[in-house]
Amino acid sequence: MQRGALSPVLMLSAAPEPPPRPPPALSPPGPGPRHGSARPGPAAEPSGGLGAALDSSLRTAVAFKAEGQRCYREKKFREAIGKYHRALLQLKAAQGARPGGLSAPAPGPAGSPGPARLSEEQRRLVESTEVECYDSLTACLLQSELVNYERVREYCLKVLEKQQGNFKATYRAGIAFYHLGDYPRALRYLQEARSREPTDTNVLRYIQLTQLKMNRCNLQREDSGPRDAID
């Protein structure tokens, strides 16, 4: 070995180290579950389950309505009111089309099954049952010892939204407005009812009562006018 030459061991140690390899490229993080996030829910139920829930809710609503009618005939008005309310709850469940009476959730991603749609026949059944329930509720409320005329007015207007020509709802709306002190509206509904049933004695009597109330109110305003001017 020549002087000044490096030994093989020193030559290896003195050789430059190869450059470090770059770290492997990391793929972007996916939408995995975060810490504390809820676990994925159960798979979406098939549309057949929604249709079965809809049919079940409709059948239950019709059954409750029939029970309410039976209670009304037996003059069990409070029980009838409860039956009609339960029928209306079932109708809401049917329109939501979710099992167990739950309302339909917010729309999910594309391709997920939405709430079952009502057929034309089912839609007519829902509407007719709803109208009959509200119409019967007003009849029950008017039989109460202490009549809630605000509820009577509310339910009558719901019926008239669906059936503008409903005589009973028009007449009862006039009664409700009369007892709530809104005589101009009471007279309007009562006159509308008279146009459909010109010889109905109850309608004619309430029209007379309403006109008397309106005349008294006008006289009171006329009497109070000069006093206010003098004061």
Automatic annotation (TrEMBL):
It comes from Erinaceus europaeus. Keywords: Repeat, TPR repeat. TPR repeats lie at residues 167-200. InterPro entries: AIP/AIPL1/TTC9, TPR-like_helical_dom_sf, TPR_rpt. Residues 16-32 have a biased composition (Pro residues). Residues 1-52, 96-121 are annotated as: Disordered. This is Tetratricopeptide repeat protein 9B. The keyword Secreted does not apply. The gene is TTC9B. Residues 96-105 have a biased composition (Low complexity). PROSITE patterns: TPR.
